Amino acid sequence: xxxxxxxxxxxxxxxxxxxxxxxxxxxxxxxxxxxxxxxxxxxxxxxxxxxxxxxxxxxxxxxxxxxxxxxxxxxxxxxxxxxxxxxxxxxxxxxxxxxxxxxxxxxxxxxxxxxxxxxxxxxxxxxxxxxxxxxxxxxxxxxxxxxxxxxxxxxxxxxxxxxxxxxxxxxxxxxxxxxxxxxxxxxxxxxxxxxxxxxxxxxxxxxxxxxxxxxxxxxxxxxxxxxxxxxxxxxxxxxxxxxxxxxxxxxxxxxxxxxxxxxxxxxxxxxxxxxxxxxxxxxxxxxxxxxxxxxxxxxxxxxxxxxxxxxxxxxxxxxxxxxxxxxxxxxxxxxxxxxxxxxxxxx
Length: 347
Hints:
Helix content: 25-40%
Order of helices and strands: HEEEEEEEHEEHEHHHHEEEEEEH
Number of domains: 4
Structural class: alpha+beta
Number of helices: 8
Strand content: 25-35%
């Protein structure tokens, strides 16, 4: 009886649920366990390739402050690492942790039990020392396997690019990941590889975005690829990145400027799109006419990052109005700027 069946029979449907990351092909899954586990704990869990080793990333849904629609005060990476200055957010001599008073830190929380549904698999077991040793041995063999497979690909003249390989620790099986522009007949390649490794061979074709997610690298912003560093990649979702998202964010519509090294539109366009839509919903659209000081001004730009609206008046005059000073009057059906701000602006 497997662990999932055992828990189903006992009626224990509450457990600790964790994110699990596979270090070999950078895949993230969700798994349940009946006790507290901490980040970095090695576990054996079921993947789409079979039983494999993964590392606990953290508990599901309790890390840091949750996102509130319309909020621009999201906690990100620590901005004051290594600082001893109390003004930078660290409490001094009060017995608390330095991150408790820092607005830039993600505050780690203890895991909490939650109801486990049918979509969540149970972790099979904690990785044993022998399984860890076998995993390390397999890592040493992967470079050799890549070299052999590339030689066989050249031998058969196949139009495919080998990305990486992974030996399964719980069964005699090796998985080769590759990209190709078209369908590849690799039956003869599998026969040759089976003769060399004497185990089950699986070739898995992946897309360009999946290749970037697996290998990683630095994007145009200077940070790690979103698909490699984030918990969930765009390629894992049903929704895709579109040019409309770039338009919503007032970005260049030149696909070359908003594409990543994988050749696809940047993942961050999808991650940030919802926030831009929320913010723009509370602002007048571009082209709207607003009456100021007995004159009609035209909205030319809504800048979400600076939280200001640009207005164009007669004779080319321009002004910028903060979001907080403009509002929609339901009675008149027009956008208006607060009287206090107008008085300050034109005094």
